[in-house]
Amino acid sequence: MITFPVLTFLRVENYGLFPGKPVSKGIEWDFKKGLCLIAGINGLGKTTLLTMLLRVFSGPFDLTGDGLPETLESVIPESPILLKTRVLRYFAQRVADQGREATVTLKAKFGKDEITISRHLFDLRLLLFAVNDEPRDLGANRQDREAAFQQLMCTFFDLSSFVDVLLVLHHVIFFMEVGLGALWDENAQRHLLRALYLEKDLAAQVAAAERRVVSTDSRARNISASAFAIEERLRHARASAANASEIAVELAAEQKLLDAELMERERLDSLLDELDEQRKEVRREYEQAKLTREEADQRFRAAQAEILFRRFAFPPYIYTHNASTFSETSYHRLTIDEKNLIVEVAAQLSFPSDSSTNAGFELKYAVRERRKGLEWQPDPSTTGAEAAKKFIVQLVQELTRSE
What we know:
Blueprint: E1 6-13, E2 26-30, H1 46-58, E3 61-62, E4 81-82, H2 85-88, E5 103-110, E6 113-120, E7 126-131, E8 134-135, H3 142-157, H4 162-173, H5 181-184, H6 186-197, H7 200-242, H8 244-309, E9 318-322, E10 327-336, E11 339-350, E12 360-370, E13 376-378, H9 382-402
Antiparallel strand pairs: 1-2, 1-5, 3-4, 5-6, 6-7, 7-8, 9-10, 10-11, 11-12, 12-13
């Protein structure tokens, strides 16, 4: 038969939110028979105190990692879930020193037996478990100690699992304002009634059967979804098979068109190669004709230059010829006042762009004197300059007559 705990004693030590009055290490309270009322303004720690009583029994475990959910699922977990760090440090976050030295000790009666539970508020670590003031050795390992503690709680509550113990703690013993699922949540009501009114073995069997049903339903949904996808693929495959003959005819026609296009492309590629060779040959002929014309132009201009310079009436003393610039320089010797003078006449041809037009030229002259033992020097004398100018006038007149 299920048994509910009756709280008899509470002690909270070294927790800043409950310093005690007068200020001491904490608070102690003996619960008397009858109604026990906790009253105070907002922020004094009423909810914190009730949560502390709850966590003495639950330890660092609950129905989910976030504690009690707003609504329960259709099935509950097979074993309790370790609280997330944020929830586990609920009490540490409310005081400046994070409750590193804070402890809570609670005594409760289950029928004729009285148990004592002591936990560290910083991480809800189990410090002491005693029955009728006799400490029980639950093991050195923290995980093993919690597992042994949970098994003992199932024995004292006379419930099939510690998950059912958590259900009773949340919905019957500690009826918190944030956990009203037993009033409105159908799943919470069903799980709670199963835990309270069925025999332990039968309650465990029903919970296991519920989990199997949900698991089987989930697998069935997955299989149904897979079957639907397979059915869709099969339908598409059948439709494709029905259209296969029509597709084959279309493919054959498309293949013929493709073959014809490939043949036409080969013909055009061959024609393009022939035209490219013809273009190259025409280009070579053009370059050769261009070279031939340039050579003919050079010979024509050379002939023009030769004819032009033959018109000089006076035989030069000496002349030089520059074929690249079509220029010639003639040096004519004059003897004036027993001076050996040279009149340098430079003729520079100029050719227009049209080679059929007669070329033009210009004359430049200078008078130089050569004295014994010296190179030719410019003659600054008036006599030499006048003689050279007279020579040039005669030369131009001769050229004019020859034209």
